[in-house]
Amino acid sequence: MKSFFKNVLANIVAIAIICVLFFFFFVIVLIFGSMSGDKSVVVKKNSVLTINLKTNIIDSPTEEHTDVFNINSQNKNVLIYEALEAINKAKNDDNIKGISIEADELNAGLTQIDDLRNAIDDFKKSGKFVYTYGNNVSQAAYYLGSVADKYYLNPAGMIELKGMATEVTFFKDFADKFGIGIEVIRHGKFKSAVEPFLRNDISPENKEQLGTLLNDIWKNASSRMASSRKIDSTQFKTVVDSLYGMIPDLSLQYKLADKLIQKTEYDELIKSKLNLKEKEKLNKISLGKYIASYSSEDKSGDKVAILYASGAIYNGDQYNDIFSEKYIKYIKELQENDKVKAVVFRINSPGGSANASDEILFELQQLKKKKPLIVSFGDYAASGGYYIAMAADKIYSEPNTLTGSIGVFGVIPYFKEIANKNGIRSDIVATNANSQYYSSLNGVSPYGVNMITKGVEGTYKRFVHFVTQNRKQSFEQIDNIGGGRVWSGTRAKQIGLVDELGTLNDAVKYAAQKAGLKSYNVESYPKKMSPFEQIFKDLNEDDISARMIKNKIGKSNYEILEKFTNEKLQSEIKMEMPYQLKIN
Q1: What are the tens digits of pLDDT across the range 24-43?
Q2: Is 383 a catalytic residue?
Q3: Catalytic residue among 286, 324, 383, 405
Q4: With 90 as the cut, is the pLDDT of residue 203 above it?
Q5: Is residue 173 in a domain?
Q6: Which of 37, 358, 383, 563 is the most buried (most CB within 10 A)?
Q7: Are both 454 and 553 inside the same structural domain?
Q8: 381 pLDDT band (50/70/90 cuts)?
Q9: Whether residue 284 is found in the same domain as residue 313
């Protein structure tokens, strides 16, 4: 008995200690949160707007996350729309004398870099300077930085300018070797998401699609870099093919950089440009702080709402990614909000669940009956991401948006052979002919395959039906450019899958025009979560473990792992793009 009470007392003490530690943990996090907040930022005279490594350009508020495992992080998340507005505002701000780009790596998507480049190009029309400094510069960072009037490189630095390539990993032999069966059902010869399970090499159709896509995007990016640096296109190709950017002297010789100097010399150069005295301080202000300097301005009156949809599409009700129940609530809220006169639906998604995509599309169709609905595409608007755009009055795409992928597939794994080899077998008792049409050991029955195939075909026809309605083309026309094929935004405009090539800002201006608004404010949905709300959200055991794994192996690797471990990604018909594309 004495031992029993001793154990009970020990458990009570342990629980009390945990509660105290949790309390102090939250106090510390909240203190850090308040310390990191921007306090009444004042823009000083002779300031330089700085885009640096501490700036993460994100497409949606749902991508913003307070990481309780990394509370010392100095990075500031900035929405692309806010970043573009800031650069536009700085153009006419007498206190901002120029822009300094100081980013070796760049946390931004390809279309976001395009938009930033366009905004900085427009900023240069004011006569203010734009300079860039780099050490070991990624290709994405150079794509942005090359827009500058002058590009300065560290004498021991490098520019990783190499072009674009894709490497596809195949699992067919692996599955065969270990006795893993994979039943694949798809519509569309270009629906290459399932190829790694069917082949050991890239199919001719997929090779054609990848070649066209990569060349479209690289042609756009390389021509802009060559033009900004005043390099002949033939010579620029030679520079890229030869990796000359990896050698500082060759970067200078072939005009990738204007001068090799140290960072301190670069800062002194800017001070000289501003006519500052030797002891005067150089005032640099980040995008995040500059936005904070005016973000508290009055925003009452008529509104154009931007509803951001970023990530994969799922059924359910969670904050991150695109969960159908959550987005139905957002859409209904916008539909009933009389102050919101028009909605811009910003899509940055490779797709996901066909069912969830259909639910979201239906609610957007109801919204469209009440107020203008304009769609803007980010890096991805493919498969389910394209499907949910089909309620739009008008669709804006970026030139490099991965667009289309009008196709449907299902992948069903089973483990009969490997189980049998290891002495595992099963037997079935059922009430009906197809009660067990699928099992993880025996796979899918022939009749089950037949019915799932009909489901995939029916979903594809429904997909194409909505596209024909929105794009004013016949089934045959859409089917001809569909089949799961992914197009660049430029080609999507040529074949009629989008209406205009333009930015999120262009879509917002058009939405306001369509709603008849002369003055308006822009409001973002979903609302940003406070750090406190995000901390509580992360108390879910699965979320905590996921964050720890993601921090350890990196976001890209975690997304691959999730394909095999997340139940939401399995056992259903999908509208999903086969790959992601980045300029690294």
Answers
A1: 544 444 444 444 444 578 89
A2: yes
A3: 383
A4: no
A5: no
A6: 383
A7: yes
A8: very high
A9: no
Same domain? 56 vs 106: yes
> Given pLDDT bands bounded at 50, 70 and 90, which one contains residue 344?
very high
Q: Would residue 177 count as lying in a domain?
A: no
Question: Cα–Cα distance between 471 and 403 in angstroms, integer?
Answer: 14
- Report how many domains make up the chain: 3
CATH code, 142: 3.90.226.10
User: The domain containing residue 147 runs over which residues?
Assistant: 44-162+243-294
For residues 539 and 219, which has the higher predicted lDDT (pLDDT)?
219
Q: Exposure string (b/e) for 269-302, b if CB count within 10 Å is 16 or more?
A: ebbeebeeeeeeeebebbbbbbbbbeeeeeeeeb
Same structural domain, 32 and 49: no
Query: Which residues in 121-150 are b (16+ Cβ under 10 Å) and which e?
Result: eebbeeebbbbbbbeebbbbbbbbbbbbee
Q: What is the CA radius of gyration of the chain?
A: 27
Higher pLDDT pick, 413 / 400: 400
| Distance (Å, whole) CA 430 – CA 452 | 20
How far is residue 150's CA from residue 261's CA, in Å, rounded to a whole number?
A: 12
| 64 or 154: which leads in pLDDT | 154
Burial level of 36, CB count in 10 A (0-12/13-18/19+)?
Answer: middle
Domain stop point among 265, 294, 323: 294
In a shared domain, residues 14 and 56:
no
Residue matched to tokens 């300077």: 129
Q: Which of 128, 191, 341, 574 is catalytic?
A: 191
What are 183-200's pLDDT values in tens digits? 777 765 555 667 777 788
Do 470 and 539 lie in a common domain?
Answer: yes
Q: How many CB atoms lie within 10 A of CB 523?
A: 16
Cβ(327)–Cβ(388) below 8 Å? no
Say whether both 118 and 60 belong to one domain: yes
Of the CA atoms within 13 Å of residue 510, those in its CB half-sphere come to 21
Question: Is residue 465 situated within a structural domain?
Answer: yes
Amino acid identity of residue 176, one-letter, is D
Q: Is residue 474 annotated as part of the catalytic site, yes or no?
A: no
